[in-house]
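Hi all, posting the design record for the shared folder.

TITLE: backbone redesign
STEP: 1 of 1
STRUCTURE INPUT:
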């Protein structure tokens, strides 16, 4: 009888071991697929600007170099392509850090209005090209002190504002508003009256590399990582991000932040 019990225990142990191994293998497979997909996406993102740069260089080597004005124009375009590559690589670096949780938030108290003014100054030209007006729905002189990682929050706001301009309509508006919320929080909203997002795409726009219009947004020059980065940063602050959007009407992205202590 003793032996039978031991055999039973042993069989159970073996089964448990096998089950654990199976789970481990499945997890590894999921991770491996995730890694492959990520690498596939990266190569895809890098290919377009790289081919553009190569195209200009080859044309220059092919004789375009002789003409001074053409030479300058092509070099400028090649340089824009390189700029784009750097931008994508910076975003990739950021998303990798965010996804492995390797991001140390350096929290401080800062005036979010002041930060928004610098961001507005930075993107005013970009907005002007589409005749988009950037506005605040708050008193310009008012200070709103919040607590968070200023550099990262700057990236959140920049990404949301850039998107509102990119997907905003000609002669449209982009408005940033800040409102007090209960329990020591503010909510910051970035609203545009641009192309909007169809209902079925809304839940997916925060996924990395997800784009509604595959060709359109690439032409606009994003990395497809902007909103994924935004979501990670907001959540790393233990805050929430919301989206409301209607096709043809516009979009509103909002997130909460803690007020300065
Ligand atoms: P991208 O580099 O493509 O802009 P993002 O992660 O910033 O990448 O955004 C993902 C997708 O979400 C965009 O390709 C676009 O389809 C959609 N999107 C983001 N912001 C807006 C907006 N303000 N209005 C309409 N569509 C938007």
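Okay, here is what came back for every position:
SEQUENCE:
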């Amino acid at each position: 009888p003793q032996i039978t019990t031991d055999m039973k225990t042993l069989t159970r142990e073996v089964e448990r071991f096998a089950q654990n191994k199976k789970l481990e293998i499945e997890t590894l497979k999921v991770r491996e697929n995730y890694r492959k997909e990520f690498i596939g996406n990266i190569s895809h993102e890098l290919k377009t600007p790289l081919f553009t740069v190569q195209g200009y260089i080859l044309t220059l080597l092919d004789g375009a170099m002789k003409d001074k004005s053409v030479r300058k124009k092509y070099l400028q375009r090649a340089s824009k392509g390189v700029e784009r590559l750097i931008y994508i690589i910076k975003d990739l670096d950021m998303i990798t850090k965010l996804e492995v949780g390797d991001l140390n938030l350096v929290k401080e108290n800062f005036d979010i209005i002041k930060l928004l003014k610098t961001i507005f100054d930075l993107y005013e030209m970009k907005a002007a090209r589409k005749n988009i007006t950037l506005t605040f729905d708050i008193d310009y002189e008012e200070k709103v002190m919040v607590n968070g990682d200023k550099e990262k929050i700057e990236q959140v706001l920049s990404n949301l504002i850039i998107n509102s301009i990119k997907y905003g309509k000609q002669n449209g508006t982009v408005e940033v508003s800040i409102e007090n919320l209960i329990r020591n929080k503010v909510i910051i909203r970035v609203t545009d009256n641009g192309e909007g997002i169809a209902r079925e795409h809304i839940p997916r726009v925060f996924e990395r590399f997800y784009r509604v219009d595959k060709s359109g947004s690439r032409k606009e020059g994003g990395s497809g990582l902007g909103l994924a980065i935004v979501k990670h940063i907001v959540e790393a602050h233990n805050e929430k991000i919301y989206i409301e959007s209607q096709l043809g009407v516009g979009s509103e992205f909002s997130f909460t932040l803690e007020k300065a202590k």
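COMMENT: The mean pLDDT is 91.
Let me know if anyone wants the other runs.
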